[in-house]
Amino acid sequence: MSKELDKKLQTLPKPKLREETKDVLHQAIMDHNEGAARVEWLPKLKSAALLTVSILAIALFSFILFTGNEGEAPRSSAPEEKYYENYVSYLESIEVYDQIDADKAFIGNNSALGKYHGQVLPGKYYANGMELQTDEEQPMGIHMHYKVTEETSAKGFEKEVFHVSNLPWTITFNATAYFTFFTNGDYVTFDIDYYGENRKYTITRSQMEDLYGRDVNEFAKDQTLWKQEVMEKTLQDEEKVQDFMKKIRVQKGE
Length: 254
Description:
Elements: H1 2-11, H2 19-67, H3 87-92, H4 110-120, E1 127-133, E2 141-148, H5 167-181, E3 187-194, E4 197-204, H6 205-212, H7 223-235, H8 238-252
Parallel strand pairs: 2-3
Antiparallel strand pairs: 1-2, 3-4
């Protein structure tokens, strides 16, 4: 019975779809596939967006952390080493004015002298104490001690202030500053332990005034005069600086 039914079914004409019907079915299948693709990509797009936002947030946090607020040094980086054309330009950059009040600028004021010795003048990274001579029966002066070692955070010219090539300028600059801003000192002695080798230089106020041809206290009230007489006419004149150091050494018997 079933075989006869199969034969009859096989002899029936095959149904044919019209072209319009085929187009409708094809479009329905394509719409279904595109919808499935959109559903599949939506989670991926959301994940990518979240990842992008996370990366931007981390970058912004890192920028704030490493750069600090406006006007501040970077929080997680060492200060950059400044560039100077030569040693005299480095000396010229040092702020010697407005460091102490005028009524404190005298030999005997430990804090005022200590600020110049350990915070302002060349050699501050090697400052190793000081002594004051305030006995009225003797010339009034100061002894500035330095100890030069490899264990220092100084860089560039700041590290080489007592090197033989810079020493005459360092001594002249520092002595000028002390006699300019401290009115009652008669002499200053620089006692330098340079990697175990002791060096000592004493400069008097009269020697300073002979060098500049004037009372150096005049520089304290006139920064333009300091720039002209100290920085330009003296420290930029190598022969003048070297001759001054020779006179100091001759008088010391070196």
